[in-house]
Amino acid sequence: MCEVSSLLERMNGYNLSQQMLALQSLERQGQEETAMMRRLAEKSSHDSTSVRILTIITLIYLPCTVVSVSGLPYLHVFTKSRKEFLLHAIRESEGYSRR
Fold this sequence. Notes:
Layout: H1 2-70, H2 74-98
């Protein structure tokens, strides 16, 4: 009986040491994952700053571009000639479909 109890005590001690090693390994893995997540968060913060800067630049330059292009005199001629070209193409295609 004494041998059985000492054997059980040894097994319990072995199990405890195995559990402690497993917990230490999990702790190391958790620390590594935390460090990786911190680096990802820093990169994400840098990316969002870049996007914010690009948005501000776009907000400044896009309205100016629209205003400058809409004031060009040849733009109206181009759109008118394009409309005429498209109407001519539609009429031609209707003429071919009737034959």
